[in-house]
Design a protein that fits this description.
It is found in: Membrane. This protein has about 575 residues and is mostly helical. It contains 22 helices and two strands. The chain has one domain: Amino acid/polyamine transporter I.
Length: about 575
Amino acid sequence: MDENHHGSSFSNIRAYSLALIQTPKRFALRAGSVATTYEEMTRIRTRSGSNMQKTLRWYDLIGLGLGGMVGAGVFVTTGRAARLYAGPSIVLSYAISGLCALLSAFCYTEFAVDMPVAGGAFSYLRVTFEFAAFITGANLVTDYVLSNAAIARSFTAYLGTSIGIDSSQKWRITIHGLPDGFNQIDFIAVAVILIITVCICYSTKESSMLNIVLTILHIVFILFIIIIGFTKGDWKNFVEPSDPKKPNGFFPYGATGVFNGAAMVYLSYIGYDAVSTMAEEVRNPTKDIPIGVSGSVVIVTVLYCLMGASLSKLLPYDMIDTEAPFSTAFQGSKSWGWMSNVVGVGASFGILTSIIVAMLGQARYLCVIGRSNVVPSWFAKVNPKTSTPVNASAFLGILTAAISLFTDLNILLNLVSIGTLFVFYMVGNAVIYRRYVTAGVTNPWHTRLFLLCFTFTAIIFTLTWQLVPPGKPKVFILVACTVIAFAFIQLFQFAVPQVLKPQFWGVPLMPWIPSISIFLNVFLLGSLDKPSYVRFGIFSGLTVLVYLLYSVHASFDAEGNRNFVRKDVEMPNFPDENDHGDDVHV
């Protein structure tokens, strides 16, 4: 198939100059273009060359979900969120984030079952608008790269703790000429990233089996820590800090601290998003994906809450270490000092599994983004021998290793949290839009108006919560926003009929669940600090610039004047294909 019959915008300087002149026209044509499920699963998928093998089952997905989430959440974000934001109420922070993640997981699952491709949220948004998909895809890949870099640096801290070494002094090299936050060089983190990159390039199934083994070992350590925490800890630590001058009680920083903590630990749940990117390699998507995605979120949320409670019982919140909270919790005890080493070993297993899963996910995102031609199609290629996206895996592995070399954990966590929340917010909007809008058949403005008004109401609620001082006016505005939000959902449900009914699995209680997911994601976004928004704004601006200078022209070259529109009848899944086991479909 000759997709480049319009000529390349990048063949020479003159061609590129003409393309830049036509940028407004091309942007108007491509930014609003819509791909269909059929296109995503056929013509666009063939751009990778070889197919990915269908080798994964539901237990693989649960294993990948547990491995991807548990290591990052408990052993990276818990210490910082508990000490700086939530205190002992970190338990509730995890519960709120878990509920938010579960609602978002329902949205992901509907898309993944109906469209089992490797692109995750990027592919889901491509069936709405290309530009929104590109912005979301760029945020997703960035989230994965930064979170993997953060987790790899945390691995250095826990590995040092497991053998009784202060990694910040012994294993990290401080360069005084660099600014704070970027001046500690971590070669161990780089080595971990590069070794895992080689593993995931080799085989998906073998990577999954390695993940399952490490995850089982990790869960055993987690259960041991929970038992020790509840049997040896002190309940007074739930309400009394070690420093009497610090705020006390279960909510030392109030409800605001709980939600600020929830926003930070939301990084913990990025693992289930990685599971959805494995949909193209699942044998039976209609059965395995709902169990794998939702089941892993529920299990992990329970573990997080128990781990948070265990940590809060072991130490007053103001004594919790921000980088290695669980291992350092045992260092002050003579009889339980050896537990610090045990926790370090267990955490190291968990961190390795989370990096494996996230790096599998980030490569598949970039692979599918390459299929759409908004980044070079070289990233889309699947190696015929390994059936893995080797090009995308290697490129992102090297980039992640470079960032993990010098960037501080706190800088990475804040930027990742805002990007993750933004992506989950977009997917909630996308599932509603897809259910209620068919291009050329229905009026999209009814749905767009609902989504805009509902988001605006959530923003007003969030700003009121964060900025208005306590009192009756604040209560009145919050209650009014809640009532208005519910009224919008109810009115939309009765006034606008659904045009697409999922054949195999759909989000229940439509549009309530995705709407609540949207509201919660907006609320958690409002809990992040100003520097996070500044960094996010700068990155988003650069993303738009890349789209205007490269992606819109590459996409136009590939598709020409072809403007995808959703067909009246979406392409159904193929149950017979899912039963072929390990066959490779070409």
